[in-house]
Amino acid sequence: MYYFYINYPNFKDRTILIHHGDCGQCKDGNGMFDSGSNEKGFWAGPFKEFSHADEALKSLIKLFNYQPEIGIHSCCQ
Ligand SMILES: [Zn+2]
């Protein structure tokens, strides 16, 4: 399963990365510190296919006035 995280405070400074659920930074959407989604941001997913996460992220950022960078974390490469 694949996930990505939208971080509100760093939205404009960070590349948004797509993660595999097994990744230590993702942990199936629970995050590195098991904080999950909270007031600082949210995990989107699970997506069964990487391409679904990628398409969802691209659709989501069309709603924003700012075009962030999109990346693939090393866990998915
Ligand atoms: Zn990752």
Q: Can you walk through the features of this model?
A:
Helices cover 16% and strands 27% of the residues. The chain is of the alpha+beta class and 77 residues long. The protein has one domain (2-76). The longest helix is centred in the last third of the chain and has 12 residues, at 50-61. The protein is globular, with a radius of gyration of 11 Å. Residues 19, 23, 25-26, 73, 75 line the site of zinc ion (ZN).
Mean pLDDT: 92
Strands of the biggest beta sheet: in what spatial order? 3-1-2-4
Classify the beta-strand content into a percent band.
25-35%
The poorly predicted ranges are none
Q: What's the total helix number?
A: 1
Number of strands: 4
Q: Report how far apart the termini are.
A: 14 Å
C-alpha-based Rg, rounded: 11 Å
Helix-strand string: EEEHE
Bound molecules: zinc ion
- How would you classify the helix and strand content by structural class? alpha+beta
Helix content: 10-25%
Largest sheet, if any?
4 strands, mixed
Sum up the overall morphology in one term.
Answer: globular
